[in-house]
């Protein structure tokens, strides 16, 4: 039966009832008119009866909801300005949250794209000080042999290697992985095969699997693999398999080689291996961790000498990949939540104003038989419409926002490629919209319901009744809004101050007009060849117009590579016997093999030296050419930099940074001291300190200066396989870059080159801080704008409602300044309450930002002084327009209007 | 102002009681809504007055539960009226509710009777 027909029948049924009742009364002797009236009174509210009856039909709910929605939509269309402002405000709040959530989801929450990803864990060793350390092959082998909780365990290490054999020479991320690595991830090559047993034997033939994108781009997607050969780090390697698209673990690896094909160091202290594993089906992480820890303890008990690994832990791989990014992202999510609160407050005030204006309408509807629940549902339907429109707008904003976010996302944010508006993100937006709709709907219904409807109808105007109560509510909302905005502004202020502090740090070098070229030598194996090529490059680069200075370094400050550190020993040359000296010379010049006895003699000499903690130190090893310091404007503090006289055969010299000099020779002159640092580059010849260089912030502007030992890259080029050519130019950097690239190509076309400017390298090192500051700053500014709009709205509305009151005051002789003060005082007192509450909240909440600030405390007095002042001034400005309007009220018009 | 005393003596119907009354009334034959109110009023000696606002929702609810059915017919006054009829299922429900009501009554009088005697002493 159609709904319409059922309604008709219900109406007819009730009419029949009425007629029969009236007829009975007439039969009892009442006049027809009386009978009719009495019967009607007895029946009661026919509309209400019909409605309640309809509710028993079951599907009435949906129908009624559709009706409410239609009614609500009509209402919203009738107030386009209100609707537009409310929807836009909600869209801002929902959009900000959705965008941030998409990052949080993509980076932190999204399951890894592997089969049963929850089973995959990363294993780390734990040393005596509870630091996480990498595995040594010996410890890994024992763990693998003993731990029963894992289906498969694999060790790997990775780095960037020069690769040629495809379209052009290139520096490619390469991972060396052990047996079972692909089983851990349960990936199979889409073409070809994994390593064969002979490729997993020490000194077996090497083979490579390639990523899908590498295969497509670098190998032109050639399906026949047998003819493909790559030169990886000077070694010819056949390509045996292509892995499925999307598999890039670890980091952004393009090539996987067998680590088992080369011999591994047997020492238990020779760390550097990362370990991943897959937990057996049916076992929990807890069980696997417990067993792993037991195994690690057992191994340590067995080999406690010469072993750092006291314990081992297993962490879900997803967590292990993202634990550095987690705190900042969660803080950003909280901050976007605060912005949503501010937006919500504005919409609440708008709805409140609406509800007051609608009192007559509601009273009439109520009198016509709308039940209280019906009115609540009506409000819910309206706020649902608003919030869904806002949610749609929010998703659109988020869509655009994510592009913006990704373009400025810090380079070290893991899994950033996975960030997108996807189903879970949309569900999040939907959930936020629904929650908002519920909250706003119930809030307005509650406020509207509290008005005395009888009074409203009796008054026939919307001037009185709930208005006063609503005023109080909107003042409270305004104060809350100010409080939340203050928290956001304080957060942004702290980050802004931190950013300025970071920028004002002296990095120890100049970045302007410096271009960088990352190069990897592949064909030049001997020192002589490398030095020759470097000198050719310097010679040609200096001919490029505008070039001021050129140099090379193994590690560029603030670059992505990071430094390598190692222990050195303080040695007086007189400690060396002529025999030892001879061995060192022989060993370091690579002239002839040393006998086993000779090795033993060298070991006997050096081992006790390095064991003596009083005469060793830890430094970061940098191989730099003479021109490097001037190219980067690194200051000379004492002594001299390298010169052309420091050749391979001349006495070997080092320049140390001030930080290193301070920590190593606090009481004596570093110049002339001699050290042994051969474990870094295999050259055992002693190094004499000839200069002290100014300190450089090598890894981050926020970390203390890096203690550096500079060796001369033209004297000890052993480690110069990968280096960065830095050129200071007076001309156009990009012209210089392409000219320098051309020089290298002409000298050796097999050398891969990656170009950049030092300014960009510097800026990239600040990307995380800039990202956080921009986001929090943008959120805080949006909140401030919303708060301004909110304060203005509340006061403008309040003034409009009190037109009559102000009219009377002015008529009784109140001056404009009295009226002005009256309104402003209201704004100031509300704002002050908000500032007080917000200040306390900010003081507590910003403590979680401890890790994000630099050089200021989270209770930074300047921030806490300036931000409230700013808010107060802004609130006064926002209040001034309505206050001024109040002074211009014409008492005659105001009173007559009633 | 007709019979104000009737309103004073009126008893608020307990939840579920109305259903029982309607089913019981329909046991004596099909009836329309107005007829049901009249029957209840007469049989209760003017004590129970079913409000229209409760009656029709109840009728439609009972119909939805298939305890009663409805059809349009012509009344003795030649009016088109909707009459309700008890179903077999409704008869079972009536029996069940009736026994529940009896138990309630028994329990109530068990509690109330001794106190009534005491007050007489």
The helix fraction of chain A, in percent, is 40-55%
How can the largest sheet of chain A be summarized? Answer: 6 strands, mixed, barrel
Fraction in beta strands of chain A: 5-15%
Instruction: Please tell me the overall pLDDT of chain B.
Output: 78
Spatial extent as radius of gyration of chain B: 17 Å
- The dominant shape of chain B is globular
Q: Kindly estimate the percentage of residues of chain B that lie in beta strands according to DSSP.
A: 5-15%
- Count, helices of chain A: 29
The low-confidence runs of chain B, each spanning 5 or more residues with pLDDT under 50, are 1-10, 116-121
Number of helices of chain B: 5
Query: Which series of helices and strands of chain B comes N to C?
Result: HHEHHEEH
Tell me the span between the first and last alpha carbons of chain A. 52 Å
DSSP E strands of chain B, number: 3
Helix percentage range of chain B: 55-70%
Spatial sequence of strands, sheet with the most strands of chain B: 1-3-2
Based on secondary structure, the structural category of chain A is: alpha+beta
Radius of gyration of chain A, taken over Cα atoms and rounded to an integer in Å:
38 Å
Query: Between the first and last Cα atoms of chain B, what is the distance in angstroms?
Result: 40 Å
The largest pleated sheet of chain B is described as: 3 strands, antiparallel
Structural class of chain B: alpha+beta
């Amino acid at each position: 039966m159609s709904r319409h027909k059922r309604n008709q029948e219900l109406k007819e049924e009730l009419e029949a009832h009425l007629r029969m009742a009236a007829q009975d009364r007439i039969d009892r002797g009442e006049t027809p008119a009386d009978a009719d009236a009495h019967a009607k009174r007895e029946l009661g509210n026919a509309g209400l009866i019909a409605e309640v009856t309809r509710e028993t039909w079951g599907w009435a709910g949906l129908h009624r909801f559709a009706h409410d929605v239609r009614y609500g939509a009509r209402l919203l269309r009738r107030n386009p300005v209100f609707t537009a402002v409310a929807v836009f405000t909600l869209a801002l709040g929902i959009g900000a949250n959705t965008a941030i959530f998409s990052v949080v989801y993509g980076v932190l929450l999204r399951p890894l794209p592997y089969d049963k990803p929850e089973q995959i864990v990363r294993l780390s060793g734990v040393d005596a000080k509870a630091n996480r350390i990498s595995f040594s092959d010996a410890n890994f082998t024992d763990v693998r042999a003993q731990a029963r909780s894992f289906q498969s365990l694999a060790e790997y290490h990775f780095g960037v290697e020069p690769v040629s054999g495809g379209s052009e020479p290139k520096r490619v991320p390469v991972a060396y992985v052990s047996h079972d690595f692909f089983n851990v991830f349960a990936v199979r090559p889409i073409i070809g095969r994994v390593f064969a047993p002979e490729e997993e034997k020490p000194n077996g033939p090497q083979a490579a699997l390639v990523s899908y994108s590498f295969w497509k781009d670098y190998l032109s997607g050639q399906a026949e693999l047998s003819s493909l050969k790559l030169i990886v780090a000077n070694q010819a390697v056949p390509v045996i398999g292509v892995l499925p698209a999307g598999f890039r673990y670890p980091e952004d690896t393009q090539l996987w080689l067998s680590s088992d094909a080369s011999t591994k160091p047997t020492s238990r202290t020779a760390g550097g291996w990362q370990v991943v594993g897959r937990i057996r089906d049916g076992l929990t992480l807890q069980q696997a961790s417990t067993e792993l820890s037991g195994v690690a303890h057992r191994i340590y008990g067995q080999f406690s000498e010469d072993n750092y690994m006291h314990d081992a832990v297993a962490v879900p791989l997803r967590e292990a990949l993202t634990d550095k990014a987690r705190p900042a992202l969660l803080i950003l999510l909280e901050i976007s939540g605060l912005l949503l609160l501010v937006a919500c407050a504005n919409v609440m005030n708008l709805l409140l104003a609406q509800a007051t204006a609608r009192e007559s309408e509601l009273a009439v509807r109520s009198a016509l038989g709308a039940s209280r629940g019906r009115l609540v549902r009506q409000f819910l339907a309206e706020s649902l419409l608003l919030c869904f429109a806002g949610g749609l707008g929010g998703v659109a904003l988020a869509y655009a926002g994510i592009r913006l976010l990704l373009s400025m996302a810090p380079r070290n944010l893991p899994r950033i490629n996975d960030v997108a508006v996807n189903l879970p993100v949309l569900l999040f937006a939907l959930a936020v919209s629904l929650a908002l709709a519920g909250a706003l709907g119930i809030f307005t219904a509650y406020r509207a319901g509290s008005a005395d409807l009888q009074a409203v109808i009796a008054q026939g105007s919307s001037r009185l009744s709930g208005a006063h109560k609503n005023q109080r509510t909107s003042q409270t909302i305004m104060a809350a809004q100010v409080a939340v905005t203050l928290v956001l502004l304080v957060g942004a202020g702290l980050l802004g101050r931190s950013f300025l502090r970071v920028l004002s740090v002296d990095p120890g070098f100049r970045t302007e007009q410096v271009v960088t070229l990352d190069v990897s030598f592949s064909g030049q194996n001997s020192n002589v060849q490398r030095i020759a090529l470097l000198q050719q490059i310097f010679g040609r680069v200096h001919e490029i117009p505008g070039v001021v200075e050129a140099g090379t370094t193994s590690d560029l400050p603030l670059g992505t590579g990071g430094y390598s550190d190692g222990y050195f020993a303080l040695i007086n040359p007189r400690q060396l016997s002529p025999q030892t000296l001879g061995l060192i010379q022989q060993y370091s010049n690579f002239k002839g093999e040393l006998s086993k006895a000779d090795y033993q003699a060298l070991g006997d000499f050096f081992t006790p030296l390095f064991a003596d903690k009083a005469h060793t130190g830890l430094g970061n090893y940098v191989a730099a050419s003479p021109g490097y310091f001037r190219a980067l404007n690194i200051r000379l503090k004492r002594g001299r930099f390298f010169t052309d006289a420091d050749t391979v055969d001349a006495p070997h010299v080092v320049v140390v940074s001030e930080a290193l000099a301070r920590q190593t020779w606090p009481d004596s002159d570093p110049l002339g001291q001699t050290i042994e640092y051969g474990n870094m580059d295999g050259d055992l010849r002693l190094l004499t300190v000839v200069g002290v260089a100014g300190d450089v912030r090598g890894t981050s502007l926020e970390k203390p200066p890096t203690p550096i030992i500079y060796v001369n890259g033209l004297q000890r080029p052993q480690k110069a396989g990968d280096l960065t050519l830095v050129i200071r130019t007076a001309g156009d950097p990009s012209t210089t870059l392409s000219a320098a690239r051309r020089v290298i190509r002409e000298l050796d076309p097999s050398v891969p080159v990656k170009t950049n400017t030092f300014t960009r390298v510097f800026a990239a090192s600040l990307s995380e801080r800039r990202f956080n500051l921009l986001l929090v700053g943008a959120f805080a500014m949006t909140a401030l704008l919303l708060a301004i709009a909110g304060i203005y709205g509340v006061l403008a509305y309040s003034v409009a409602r009190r037109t009559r009151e102000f009219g009377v005051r002015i008529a009784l002789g109140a001056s404009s300044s009295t009226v002005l003060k009256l309104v402003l005082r209201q704004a100031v007192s509300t704002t002050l309450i908000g500032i007080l509450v917000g200040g306390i909240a900010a003081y507590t909440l910003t403590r979680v930002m401890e890790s994000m600030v630099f050089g200021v405390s989270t209770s930074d007095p300047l921030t806490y002084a300036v931000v409230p002042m700013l808010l107060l001034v802004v609130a006064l400005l926002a209040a001034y327009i309505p206050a001024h309007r109040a002074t211009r009220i014409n008492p005659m018009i105001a009173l007559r209007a009633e | 102002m007709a019979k104000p005393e009737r309103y004073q003596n009126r008893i608020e119907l307990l939840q579920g009681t109305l259903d029982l009354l309607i089913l019981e009334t329909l046991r004596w034959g099909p009836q329309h809504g107005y007829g049901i109110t009249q029957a209840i009023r007469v049989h209760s000696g003017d004590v129970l007055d079913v409000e229209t606002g409760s009656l029709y929702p109840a009728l439609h609810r009972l119909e939805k539960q298939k305890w009663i059915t409805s059809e349009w017919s012509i009344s003795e006054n030649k009016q088109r009226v909707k009459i309700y009829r008890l179903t077999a299922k409704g008869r079972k429900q009536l029996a069940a509710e009736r026994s529940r009501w009896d138990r309630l009554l028994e329990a109530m009088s068990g509690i109330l009777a001794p106190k009534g005697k005491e007050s007489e002493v």
